[in-house]
């Protein structure tokens, strides 16, 4: 059972993890309320110094705060109504984000200076964004059916996905050095090399609706399959999937029949975790699933693992998530 803890987290003594040591979820959730109503926090990224960065899709802002919830600062995005969605740490030390409705990629420095780069394809609806093995930022263009690459200097290259109207919804760097992505409309998982070569792997069912994807601790890619009507399409996934580097796919049914999983990440315990409405789900390597309720009124999205330390050192002991319904940034504690 999750418990609600208001305000700032208390200071903890320094601790170092032993090799291969894993932490366990405590069930304790801490929430930090955002100052503006209807900010719509969506995703979270952690800077190298442990600072927490997040998008506010409803408020058209980028937020930054310390791991204890203090020093909260919000930065207005220059383009009105850009709808910032996904955020990621770049190899240049800056934070990068997609502007879903402005067809732009944004970059914000640690000091809050924002630059915006227009994508050549208009109305492309960039969504997913991640750092590639080549040091560039890669992103998916949901409406255009393309994968894009942007250099730290802002040079953009676009790559066509072979399947028309594929709807690339999420992407992540894989252990093989490639970028893996979900094709929501096509019900496929895609892989693109740093040179732009694309391979696609169809899921067993045509209405699976794959969403968020992440690299697992087991060397495979893990993803969620959405459930319900999303972006104008009816899908009936409600599963967590795993795909090997050779393309072998395994699916695990989520026990709760209602609602939809949205985001996925590896937790401090080495397991795969997902958000699903008012719950967080944990998936073990063999596919065992357990769901944990969030505090009343919370709706979790945008998972990422992090630390309560600044700098984080080697201690990862939190699973951060954005609470769009509660207008909060929150975390589940591990110890």
List the helices and strands and how they pair.
Elements (H helix, E strand, L loop, with lengths): L2 E4 L18 E9 L7 E6 L5 E5 L4 E5 L7 E4 L7 E6 L5 E5 L4 E5 L5 E5 L7 E6 L5 E5 L4 E5 L5 E5 L7 E6 L5 E5 L4 E5 L5 E5 L7 E6 L5 E10 L2 E11 L5 E5 L10 E3 L5 E5 L2 E5 L5 E5 L6 E7 L11 E6 L4 E7 L1
Parallel strand pairs: 1-2
Antiparallel strand pairs: 2-29, 3-4, 4-5, 5-6, 7-8, 8-9, 9-10, 11-12, 12-13, 13-14, 15-16, 16-17, 17-18, 19-20, 20-21, 21-22, 23-24, 24-25, 25-26, 27-28, 28-29
CATH T-level topology: Methylamine Dehydrogenase, Chain H
Give the overall shape, derived from the CA principal axes.
globular
Please write the CATH class name: Mainly Beta
Mean pLDDT: 93
Provide structural commentary.
Strand 15 (168-173) and strand 16 (179-183) form a beta hairpin. It contains no helices and 29 strands. It has a single domain, classed as 7 Propeller (Methylamine Dehydrogenase, Chain H), CATH 2.130.10. Mean pLDDT is 93; it is low at 1-16. By secondary structure, it is mainly beta.
Structure summary:
This protein is mainly beta and 335 residues long. The chain has no helices and 29 strands.
What are its keywords?
335 residues, mainly beta, Methylamine Dehydrogenase, Chain H, four-stranded antiparallel beta sheet, 29 strands, 50% strand
